[in-house]
Amino acid sequence: MTALVVLPSGLRRIVMVLGFPAGYTDAGFVPFETFGAKVWMLTLSVLSELVALLTIGLVRPWGEVVPRWIPLVGGRAVHPLAAVVPAALGAAALTLLWANVPWWWTYPHDDMTPAGSLVVGILYQPLILWGPLTAAVAYSYYRRHRPATRGTIGS
């Protein structure tokens, strides 16, 4: 699911890399026409999607045992905290990073067309869910892999 909430914004950036203004005015799009900007947008889109796809490891077997094809550590069990701590920190960072997205339309976007501002706001809204979804699968992973508790008092 996390990979799907990241997809709309990434596809929009790829459209921009291909030379389409994707909601910007002609003047507003100029900074995005440089080679460096295109490399950055493409890199950001690919890396965001790859990071989002990593959450699948929290619900699939390769999140419990390192795949054999990985040198030096392949085939070893993943220590639960080695998966939970980065996922929890990432969830917190993503939640903070995208917390202002619901208020997209309250900020001025002078370099965008009115329709572009509306569409971009809609495409970026799913990012609000990225952090909480990551937190949910990290918590689920933790619950499934926490050490077994010994008998409790009174039982």
Automatic annotation (TrEMBL):
- Name of the protein this chain belongs to: Integral membrane protein
Q: Which residues cross the membrane?
A: 35-59, 80-101, 121-142
What keywords does the record list, in alphabetical order? Membrane, Transmembrane, Transmembrane helix
Which source organism? Streptomyces polyasparticus
Q: What is the lineage of its organism?
A: Bacteria, Bacillati, Actinomycetota, Actinomycetes, Kitasatosporales
